[in-house]
Amino acid sequence: MLGAGLGIQQTARSGLFQLLVASTLGVGLVGLARLPGAHLGVLLMLALTGGGLASLEAQVDVPEALREGGTALMEGEVQRVERFGDTTRLLLDVARVGPGEGVAARFLANLSARGEPPPLLPGQRVRLEARLQPLAPASNPGEKDLSEKRFRQGMAFTGGFQAERLVVLSRPARWRQELARLQAELSEAVNAVAPSPEAAALFLTLAAGQRASLDAGLEEDFSRSGLAHVLSVSGLHVAALALMTLALLRGGLVRLGAVVRPLRRLEARRLAAPVSVPFVWAYVVFTGTQPPAVRSAVMASCVLLGLALWRRADGLNSLAAAAAVLVVWGPSSVADLSLQLSFLAVFSLLLLTPALREALPVPPPDPRESRWLARHGGKLRETVLETLCASGAVTLASLPLVAATFGRVSLAGFVSNIVCLPLCGVLTGFAAGGAALQVVSPWLATPLLWGGAWASWVLLGLTRFFAHVPLATVDVPAFGLAASLLYAAGLGFWALGERRWRWGGLLVPGALALALVWPHVRPEPGLRLTFLSVGQGDALVLSSRGHHALLDGGGVPGGADPGLRVVVPFLQAARIPRLDLAVLSHPHPDHALGLISALEKVPTERLWLPAGSTHGPLSRRLIAVASGAAIEEVQRGRAVYPLGEATVEVLGPPEEREWLEGVNDQSVVLLVRHGDVTVLLPGDIEEAGEAALLEGARLGPVTVLKAPHHGSRTSSTPELLAAVRPRYVVFCVGRRNRFGFPHPEVAARYRDLGTECLRTDLQGAITLESDGHDVRLSAFLPSPSPGERDVVAGPPSHHQP
Predict the structure, then answer these.
(1) Which of 432, 431, 420 has the alpha carbon at shortest distance from 460?
(2) I need a labelling partner for 721 at 20 to 30 A (CA). Which of 62, 65, 105, 776 fits?
(3) Is the distance from CB of 592 to CB of 610 less than 8 angstroms?
(4) Global confidence as pTM
């Protein structure tokens, strides 16, 4: 797994070379096995094998003409089909590109379309025309980054296609058709007996892996309650199914042995164990072969086959076998978050849970206890304590990864898991049993489906209760590499050490203190302003000494929501739970849609809109979600607003704006001042709006300017630039946007002034930090390539610190 995680190269030659070296080393180790240190050679061989397999999976072959994206006619095999409302998403394994025979290619493309394409199943070959965009890493702090996992899978593009123009070239495999039919029948049967659509969706998630039917609010409740693991077919469900299948088969054989004399000579458990293995794998395949489920199925198979051979399975050996199978089956799974959490959970259960139980000052129950009530009470108490220790072990072991990914940890999970895990086990039995009987006889399956749907309804009620208790979750910052290593070392010393070595466990609270205190030790600038990269739109966050403002939020009608995808994760990563001020510069979708969704999640004390704009549909939606905020229509002349050490002055729109015909020219224009540093934020004003600004406001040189209207040809007039002479200009634009912003003529105009140019499409989020005398600007993404650098910036400004 380390080899697959660290030794990846995206060429077939490097992958084959690593496998060749590994094979040669393996052959040599056969003869050197008795020498000291031979085990190190085995580890090296395994690492090279993992690296080679990962490199082969990540290999791509993209035609030269398509490397920068664009429209292409492609042919390939469908790997995955997902439907979300009226949107269909395909993962396509592309084999040929171009009309006719085309040219050979090899890459994955994640494509989406509005509407309903022809019925599709994985394995079918299709031809379609798509507009492709190369994969790009996350462009903002806090934004979820899937680029590494996609890179490992050999994915090269995302894009869209027209559903009605997709051509199906082959029929699906018979077994896939049968599987889809069974899943559809199961879904119909469950919805017919379920007490609510949410209960049906939860039950189908466990019975058929249909997680797409769950809404975001339900997933949020499961996350807050510490029961998020219930929503994926994970080790818990597979292990529960394996135990129940083994018990049922063993009980059946015992009863059959009472009738059939020859069966009495056989050990029922040894015979039932291997027979249980196909049932476990059938459930994993039926629910979509999710990596955590595969991990648990491999471990369950080791245990069951061990019972058949009358051997006791070792937990760590079983986990190692699962790791080997997963790396061979899909090397990119090492980057799968759910699998990483699954492995951490198993490690903690095997190594940390016994140490936690040993630390509790409660003796285990006495097996010699003769009193029935005391004996069973002791067993119940021990079950609760072991569940508590297991939940604590999993929480402790996964804390750095959970903190880095979600920024919070669930405290409710310590109690919710004790209460809900028995119900989850019963629910797994209903799910697997109902799905199995649905294949044999829908009539026989109905009682199990009814029981499972109502058990899901009960679990939903408990989940909502635990999700909303006080302190259900606690926000925690990302640990960082140093604190994570200290934390892991402390857990290892405490779980595995003896005598003095156990004192190494003190590294755990030390690492926690470092992670919690360090963000507050670092000096905060007097003003921080971040221009977020939200595509073709604006979204800016201002912070000064604990006071925060949000200006716009980006947005594309019918597209991905930058408010939920970028703005809210950034606010969470920056530990901004509440805003002092939110501003809509003007009611256009590329500024308003993301702001609406952001204010649904993060409250604000005050909302500014341009004067005269409150009656439009976007403004009304924004006012509706900003419940409790003071709503104010602003124009030039409004009193200066203090924001920490900074001030915010409204320079536009002007009071007399009837002659400004366009909505862009009536944008809210703000001047942010922090000591000697000034930042001009002009919204989307164009030539007429810039003339009104120059006429009514006394503008002098500014430190930073957000380019008006994204650098369009109709803005950034020579008159405005001559008045403000910015040291830096930031273009908030989308990568390869269809408008061609920023216009080359406008970019050249800034360069001629000696202004340093920055762009959110190429450099990601741009962060400005001010001490009141000078500024420091930094980009989230690495510096652009030489070809892009010529477009981004001209000669470096002599003002740059």
Answers:
(1) 420
(2) 776
(3) no
(4) 0.81
